[in-house]
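Why do we bother with a discrete structure alphabet at all? Because it lets us treat a fold like text: something you can write down, compare, and reason about line by line. To make this less abstract, here is a complete entry for Galactocerebrosidase. Read it the way you would read a sentence in a foreign language you are learning: slowly, and without expecting to understand everything at once.
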Amino acid sequence: VRDAVGGAVRCGAVRCGAGGMGCAALLGGCLLLGCSWGPGPPGVGAAALPTATYVLDDAGGLGRQFDGIGAVSGGGATSRLLVNYQEPYRSQILDYLFKPNFGASLHILKVEIGGDGQSTDGTEPSHMHYENDENYFRGYEWWLMKEAKKRNPKIKLIGLPWTFPAWIGKGENWPYDYPDVTAYYIVSWILGAKQFHDLDIDYIGIWNERAFSSKYIKLLRYTLDKHGLQQVRIIASDRLWEPISFVLLLDSELHGVVDVIGAHYPGTKTVPNALLTKKKLWSSEDYSTFNDEVGAGCWARILNQNYVNGNMTSTIAWNLVASYYEELPFGRCGLMTAQEPWSGHYKVEAPIWITAHTTQFTQPGWSYLQVDGHLEGGGSFVALTDGLGNLTIIIETMSHNHSQCIRPPLPHFSVTSQRATFYLKGSFYMVETLQVWHSRLGFESGNSSLFQQLHPVKVWKGSFSLDLNVDEVYTLTTLKIGQKCGCPEPPPPQPFPSNYKDDFNIRNPPFSEASNFADQTGVFEYFINASDPGDHVFTLRQVVVQRPITWASDADQTISVIGNFQWVNMTVTCDIYIEKQRDGGVFVAGRVDNGGIYVRRTKGVFFWVFADGTYRVTGDLAGEEILMKGLSGVRDNAWHTLTLIIQGPSASGLLNGYPLWENVTISKPSNGWAAIGTRSFEFAQFDNFHVE
């Protein structure tokens, strides 16, 4: 019998869920006892809930084909810190994301095609920094796609550019003036994925959240086909439903080459033109919400309602895993959190288990049933079938205040406790039992019950009833799979090491970038200095020498940040080598307060030296707030050691171990990361980095 508070359900000695939390009483607990039940009289003690009936029938045909649930790595540098996790923790995180029937069990992985530009939380390196340069081992997206495929060979892969290297635009900040060049560049990435990593890319996008060019899209299709890539499908335009839908209706040739209309943050709605195109409609980027219980509520609501309200057959979360410094923009807006490779700590957040409610019991290629999908008491349901008699129903009753996504604004609605009676007809009439998986997001109690298996529902004469409370998710399915891993707890969280060194001495690095450095403008790569006599053979080099075709407001300087954002007092030491003659320059910095899309407004304490033999101390990356300047004697193409000491309200600088300037007063910012970087888009090298 249900206790009066509506909390736990106790059936004799049976307690359900986690610690008795989060079960709806189903006909006075009949469900928990597994007895036969149906739409008959309510059991003892059941409150008289508003009741509605819903029919699930495939006799009149099916709805749209389901294309899968996925997530984005990139846009940008969102998986940056994941790669330097030690085993077994790194594999555990990957299992939670990609392993079928285990955690999020994602159907789709969408990655950024790195373009050397800032794309939200950092830059991702291009496979072609320069016109005569090709390297299919930069960055971490190749590795991530292979790890995903290793766990789920059927996972679908999508590539999408945010930024492009400068040579694509031949000096213009625009990728469509030379569409044949851009198409060649994108197709090279797809061919490289196959040639060097045996990865088949399934879908390719145009330019994230920016303008599309019909001429370019047609040329891209032609170039794909010319290289035997007929199986690669095109998504457009990863922005809004319009103008792409309207243009597809006007331009039959374009209509013939675009396979999917992908919209971002559609608020579960589509537009008439998009429906008229008869194309697959996807929410090709969505979520982007802090991954607490409200984020999980947002995700649960849109996973259902993107189809119920908007006919969207795929929803893709930005982002896959929050593996970037939390103080960068949109901190912790991933399905899970893994931002501490130095400690091994990670957190499987609630959105992972909300994902599992759909992904563990459906597959791309299944079909939605033709149902309205709105629950009378608020909330929604979808029903899917594999066409072979299997049925999966996902129900969500998320309340307005507990399911607000970061965008767009959510109009008010109300959800109440309710009883739902489902009638199974057509090929589902013979279904006798349904497995039940349940989540209850505990906002008042702060105690959520996530993805718990309950006793199966007995279907009686083709129907069953379910009492639904607010802020719940149910999956009812004929599939007897489903797993919630009871894996070992990861190590406890630890701050970034307060004494950290990197000499970059690694002959065959597994990745192109040094651990824990997060590039915010420019790209910093391991480099082998063949001409060096010995002290500086292995270095870190900034390699972007022209401003890329940008997506955000990249700085005019290059910068890579590292460490603990809460640091106040610090000593940063680094050997530096200016390669650019006359007006080249480099810096070391501390208390760096910004990055990502806000990198241009970064403040901190910056110690610069220039090839003309001068130095500067500035309070900002732009170099406009000059605190001190003078002569240093530094020259290009020679190694020097810079040391920046920040203590309380003052800073001092050493050059090659000798004081160069001291007791410069600094007021703001009061804390931040350490950083290295260059005066412009120029080659420069760094070695023996040390922060304490």
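What the structure line is telling us, in plain words: The radius of gyration is 28 Å. Residues 314 and 439 are 22 Å apart (CA to CA).
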